[in-house]
Amino acid sequence: MKKIKEGQNISAPVKNKSFFKTLLFSLLGLSVIITFLLTLFLTANYFRTSLSITTAFNRNLLSQTNYTITQMDDNAQRLTQALFGDKDIISFLNMKEHDSMIPILASRTLDKQLMTLPFVDSIYLYNASLDLFFSSKSGEQLHSGEFKDEQIAALVTDPDFADSYTGVPIPGSVSGVSHVAKTLSYLVFDSTKEENGLRNVIIINVNPSLLTDSMRTMNQFEDGMRMDFVIMDKNGCVISTALSPLLEQNSQLYEILYGQLLDHSRSSGIKGSFLTIGDTRYFQSATMGNKYQWYLMSLIPAGVIFRDILTSSLAGAGIMLGVFLIGSVICLSVARRLNSPIQAITHMIKGEPVENLPSDLEGTREFRLILNTYEDMKKQNLQFEQMKRETAYSIRQDCLNSLLTGNNTDSMERIASRLNGLNLSRLLTDTLCMAVLKIDSYDRFLSENNPKELWVLRFAIVNILEEIASGYFPCQVFSRDNDKFVVLILCEEDAVYRIFRNTVDKMLLDVQENVKRCMDISLSAAYSTFFKGVEHLPSMYHNMKDSLLLKMKYGHGCIISPYMVDEMDTGSFQFPTQKAEQLCQAIEGSKTEQSLELYLRITEQLFTYDYNEIISGSIHLAYTIYTDILQKFPGLKEEGTFLLREFLAALQDSEISGDIASHMETFIRAMCAGTEEARNSSSQQNNNQITQRVCQIIDREYSDPALCLSSIAEEIGLSPNYIGQIFKASQQKSVAQYILDLRMDTLAYYLENSTLPLSRILEKVGIEKNNYFYTQFKKHFGISLGDYRKKKKLTEKEEE
C-alpha cells in the first residue's frame, strides 16, 4: 500500500473542496437546473404561444389589407376599361388639333365616373400627339412642361418608362422615407405610339388612405387603438398609415421601420421581430404577400403582449425556490450515502491500511478487486507510456507518408479516425503550408557515410528541423524518400501570406544553417502557398519536388518560394544556330578556350528555363557537337560515342547549373583533344581504309540497280560528300564512275565467255536496258553494242 502512495499523482484532499461537498452541490445544482429549465420551458412556451396568437391576429388584419389592395387594383382596372371604352375620352386622347368642345365632353364623362368612385382622387388624360394634359380636379389643359404634377409629367413623357412600366401604382408627393404618399397613380398606356414616340395615357390617382381606412373599419379600430399599421413600398416610400398620436409625432419612425425591413429576409410571409421606437419596445409583424410586394407592417407594444408572461415567470420563481429547499434536504441525504464508499476508495489510494477502512466495507471482495486492478493498471500504464514514446515517431511518419503517396484507398472517415488517434486532427481543419527540404548532392552523401548510419543522420536532421520549426509555427515534421524532409505548417485562418512567407524564409534559413554547422550537410528547400485538406497532400508534394528542381538555377542551399516558380520561363529554349555552328568549328579546330567561351554564350539564357528544358537543351547541344565532329573525323566515332555516353550519364545526376557546365566542359575538352590528335595522326591510312571499304561494298553489291554513293555512305556511317572526296582523291574517279566501269567490264566478260541472252546479262550486272545503256556502252568501249558483237563473231571465225 505504501508503494501505491509514493507513485500516485492524486492531489491531497482540500479541506474546503471535499468530494462530499462537490457531490452535495452537484445534486443541488442538478435539482435547481431541472426546476429552472422546466420553468424556463413553460415560460418560453407561453411566450411563443402569445407571439403565435398575436402573429395570427396580425396575419388576419394584414391579409385583409392585402385583399383591400387587390380590390383597389381591380376597381382601378375596371375604371380604366370603362374610360377606354368611352367615345369622349377616346376623342380627347386621339385629338390632333385643339378643340374646345372635346375636353368639355371628356370632363363630363370623368365627373360621372368620379361620383360613384369616392376612393379616386382625380383622373388625368394625356394626349401624346399634342403633349396635352387634362386634369379632372382642376379642369385645366396644360402641356407637360406646365403641368403641376411634375412627377407624372416626367414619367409619361419618358418613352423608356412607358416600355418598362409593369402596372405598379406610383406613390405621389413623396419626398424620401419620412413622408406619406398623398395619392397612388395607376398609369394606363395606349398600345400604339405617336410620331413623337410617346403614348396616350390615362392616369387614375387613388387615395391611399383607403387601405388603412378599410382595415380600421373591419377591425373596429378608433384613433386611440393599441395596434398601429404602416404600408410601405420596396423603396421605402410610405403609402398609407394608421398610427397612434405618439407614433405620428416620431419624425424618425419610417427610417427605423425601413432599416429594420432591410435587415431581414424579403421573402413573402409574416415576419416577427422586436424593435424600440422612442422609449417603447414594439413587436413588429410584416408581410409582402401582395401583388405589388409592398411591406404591410403592424406594431404592438411589447408590454401588452408580455404582461401575463411576467406574472407567470414570478410565480414560477417562487415555485423554484420551494423546490430548491425540498431538494436540498433530499440531496444532503443522498450525498452522504454516496460519499461513504468514495471516501473509502480515497483512503485506499492514499495507502491507508485496510483495517482503517469503514467497518461496513472492510474485507469486501469488491474493494480487494479494486485494489488489485489499480496496481495492474499502474504497471500497464507505465509499459504503455514507454511503448508509445518508442513507436510514436514511426507510426506518425508512416501515417503521414501514406497520405503523401496518393495511393491511400481508405475513406476520409477512416483517415480522420487515424489522425485523431495520433493527435493530428488539425490537419483536417486548419489551413496548411508544405515545406520540403532535400539533401544536396545525395550521391556524395551516400558515398561519404556508412550505410548503417544513414538512418541516424536522417533522424538527427528531423530532430533539428522539428525543434527549430516548432519555435516558429505549430507543425508536423517527418522524413520522406530517404533524401527529403517534409514540414506541414498549421497556419492561422487570417494569416497574411506576405508576412507568413518572410517567417517561413527565416525558419528554413535557420534550419539550413544549423544542419550545415552541426552535420556539414547542405539542404535545399521549397515551400508552397496555402491549401486546405489532406486530399491535396499528394499533388502538393509532387509540386514541391518539381519546385526543388529549380535549384538547377539557384544552386545548393537555396530556398525556393512559389513566386520564384512563377518567374521561370516555361517556353522552349531555341539554341542560336549560328553560334552552335561556330562552336562545332572551334572544336574541329581544337580551339578549347574559344569553344568553352562560345558554350557560355550559347547557354546564357538556358538556365532561366525549367529543369526539363535545361536537360533536353544540353542533350541536344552535345548530340549536335557529336554528329558534326564525326562527319569531319570518322575515326573518332568510337571515342566520341564513349564521351557522349559519359556526358549523358553524368547529366542525369546533375542538380545545379554548375554541374552541367562542368560536365559539358569535360565533354568539350575531350572532343577538342580528340580532333587535335586526329589531325596530328596520319590521315592517309584512314582514307585508304575508307576507299577499300567502298570498293568492297561495290564489288559485293554492283548487281543491285539501287547501288549509289548515298547507300554506300549510309552503310559506312559517314557523309556522302566526305566519302566522295576521299574516294575520288584515291581512285581518280568518282564512285558513280567506278560502279559504271565495273559493270561494263563485267558485261564484256559475260558477252565474251557466256551464251546468256543480253537481258539476263544486264540483270546480273545491275543495268537496265534503255537508251542510256547503249549510250554508255558506246562511250565506254568506243563502239556500239552491235559492232561489238560483229567484232566478236569475226574473232571467233578467225580462231577456228
UniProtKB/TrEMBL annotation:
PROSITE patterns hit by this protein: HTH_ARAC_FAMILY_1, HTH_ARAC_FAMILY_2
InterPro entries (UniProt xref): Homeodomain-like_sf (IPR009057), HTH_AraC (IPR018060), HTH_AraC-typ_CS (IPR018062)
Presence of keyword DNA-binding: yes
A Pfam family matched in the record: HTH_18
Keyword Protein transport among UniProt keywords: no
Residue ranges of coiled coil: none
Domain HTH araC/xylS-type: 692-791
TM region(s), chain numbering: 20-42
Keywords: DNA-binding, Membrane, Transcription, Transcription regulation, Transmembrane, Transmembrane helix
GO MF annotations in UniProt: DNA-binding transcription factor activity; sequence-specific DNA binding
Protein name (Swiss-Prot/TrEMBL): HTH-type transcriptional regulator YesS
Species name: Eisenbergiella tayi
Gene it is expressed from: yesS_11
